[in-house]
Known about the structure:
Distance between the termini: 61 Å
Low-confidence stretches: 1-11, 13-34, 410-416
Shape: globular
Oligomer: single chain
Largest sheet: 20 strands, antiparallel
Number of strands: 38
Structural class: mainly beta
Radius of gyration: 29 Å
Amino acid sequence: MGSPRNLKTGWRAICLAIAAFMTSPSSMAGASESAWQANDDDALLFDLRLGKYRLGDGVRGYQKPNAVCVNFDDIIRSFDLAIKISPDKSKAQGWAFDEMRALSIERTTQSITLQGRRQALPGDAIVDTREGWCVDTVELSRWLGIQLHLDQANALILVHADHMLPVERMLERRARAASFRPHIQLDENKLPQAVLPYRMWRTPALDAVVTLNGTHDRQRGAKGNRSVELYAAGEIARASVDARLSTDTHAKPSSLRLRGYRMSPGGKLLGPLGATYLAVGDVSSYGSPLVAQAMPGRGVAVTNRLLDQPDIFDRTSLHGELPQGWDAELYRNDQLLQFAQPRSDGRYEFLDVPLLYGLNSLEVVSYGPQGQIRRDRKLINVGMDNPPPGKLRYTLSFSQDNHDLVTVKNQSQYRDQGWRGSAGLEIGLGLRTSLAVQVHNLLVDDQRVSFVEGSIRRAIGPALLEMSAAAQRDGGYAGRVQLVGAFGRSFVAAESIISHDIKSDRIERSTTGTHNIALDHALALGNQIVPLHLDARYTTRTTGINSLDLSSRISRRFRGLMTTGEFGWHVEKNRSGPSPPERLDAGLLLAGRYGKIRLRGEVRW
């Protein structure tokens, strides 16, 4: 028997070894995996694609720490599989695509029988959620005998099989049958609709953000500051109303933002005008490709365009409320693009967010200091927003830039903000062609200027081509050609702008040309689809200083964290003197959660 000193030393070594094992990365990952539970932060929604066909109405899923799982019921309905899950969710039985591929899953015994061979069911293969079974995509591919590739950047599940699946044969038969009978235009007015009518009064929802802080030093003694932001949203006089009341650091009211608006997808506002959106108070103006930037401010806005249609078909700008102490993240197709930090005016702003050809899922996720999470989602389908032949769409806005509806104190940030007005018309010339014209009057560098702008847009196969021109009242002009398209798993955008003596929100007077080409491609790395973005821009100026900017961005989800790496290279050439040194920029954006800890960060070099 050893001495007491030796026993004490041995126990200490054993305890240190156990602690080292428990805190090792592998054990932490295992603990995180076993303790994971489905929550809204990890929820995903995919489109299921088999070749050129879209299957079902979407597949729900969740991002687990080390994998992705999808709803088994959605998969069964999308593929029309002969598999049935028992009412108590303990068993599933049937066959997948072929009667010879029999499948039986027993949750009670944690076993699966596939084509007559019984084997153990991995413990993390199925997770119970409120929607039902959520099955790991790798295990699901093995069960069904197909390949399920995840393209999280574009919210897609791509299906690959060695043979033609029954659902694919069925879709091809339907396509052949449709070619023998005339096409019937879908009348959305005949579909069942659920309408929530406006009320004279709907009790508003309230949210208050109170900030208290204090300082104390020997010379000035104690000093305290307090501020309040009050948010409200409800209905008054058959219109939706949202408001923000803010105070200064002494809790005295300083500004009030108030917006009253109505929306009608069927275009039933303002009688013969057939408006889809009407807003008064704090609104956002309408933008254009060459002249106007969409700006928040007090005024009025009305249009009969489709709701959520962007002002410019290949980009959009997002504005919203962001209380003090909050920050926001911008995602496009589950790809982290930007962060927004708190501003003194209580807004977030993402300007000129590029859009890809096809469906774009934009989501702004706002985080509060006490763990609050607010999501604002918008779906924009580039290529599907052209007006029908003969259909006339209009936009009209008149507002004062960056000025709240009521400002109690004459704050300096509002003194130089001017009024602007924009009006536009767009008409469909055919199924693939549209023509638009706009007029603008705005304040640029303390000078009142007027513009007229026109554009023609044409769909060419899987691409959109737009040609625009703008003229300033005092003689300046600019022209623009823009192309966006989807070619397989690659998205291409090319733009060329030529300008002369014009100055607007989008073009500086010294700029004579801007030429840009961008490529977005989905790379297949293992079981993940990694989005890659490449961009090149060349700018010429009257000053003789021309610049070349090359940038790239790559994103990947790793153990529940979305990481985005950015690289940029800037070169300037001066025709009349020495050129400045080249500049290399790099950045890393990080957002997500590890277990119960939410992480968010940004590094710049």
